[in-house]
Amino acid sequence: MTKKPLFIVLDGIDGCGSTTHSQLLAAFLEYKKDFKVHLTHEPSKSDIGKLLRKFLKNEEIPPTTDALLFAADRDLHYHNEIKKRLDDGYIVISDRYIESSIIYQSIQSDRISIEWIKQLNKFIGHPDLTIILDIEAKTALARKKEKDLEKFEDTSFLVKVRNLYLSRAKQEGYHIISSDDIIEFVQEKIQKTVLDKLNTQN
Ligand code: TYD
Question: Cβ–Cβ contacts within 10 Å for residue 37, how many?
Fold first, then answer.
């Protein structure tokens, strides 16, 4: 297996398990397969990312402002963190990336088109592999504590989010893995998908 850099994104609706599975995947690749691995997430740990986390609790932020800030956070995240690690030969795993913006922000407002989100994110680099973790909205929300819910964590909103993830995944050729199963089984499928990609890249 070649040890070339690879940019992997795990994405999906709130409660799909992208954080748990990103962490398990990073540990597998680093400790079992001996790769240099950089694990990261969006919103990022930058000041813009911190502001976005605050805004996730605030229903009064216009969706257009969210879209602009998520794009700014990603631009900074890509150029100052992800690209540098890829250039140093790391496998980079990001828990959420541009697909989250395309889906959440376009559903938030009829005024926001997928094309506009793509324009805002024009200067970022794209993942080599995107895996969508799929689960029913109801099941995903049942995993969350009611008092900690953020503004997108509502069943009818997440049903729309899930449907768009699924239709875009088919259109874009992303891998869809059901996360409504025992963690170890789901993780095994993710690891297999990543190992297949590593084996076929030249
Ligand atoms: P998440 O990391 O799943 O939150 P938590 O750590 O609380 O589980 O994601 C934060 C939220 O931000 C999630 O509802 C999706 C939303 N989001 C967007 O709307 N657009 C984006 O571009 C990104 C990256 C996230």
Answer: 20
Read off the pLDDT of residues 74-113 as tens digits, 9 standing for 90 and up. 999 999 999 999 999 999 999 999 999 999 999 999 999 9
- For the chain, domain boundaries: 6-197
Distance of CA 42 from the midpoint of ligand 1 (Å): 7
pTM check: above 0.85: yes
Between CA 17 and CA 24 the distance in angstroms is 11
Domain 6-197 architecture = 3-Layer(aba) Sandwich (3.40)
Return the best residue to mutate from 54, 148, 150, 157 for the ligand 1 pocket (most ligand atoms within 8 A of CB).
150
CB 56 within 8 A of CB 104: no
**What amino acid is encoded at 48 in this protein?**
I
User: Which strands, in side-by-side order, build the sheet including 37-41?
Assistant: 37-41, 91-95, 6-12, 129-134, 175-178
* Cα separation, 148 vs 15, whole angstroms: 12
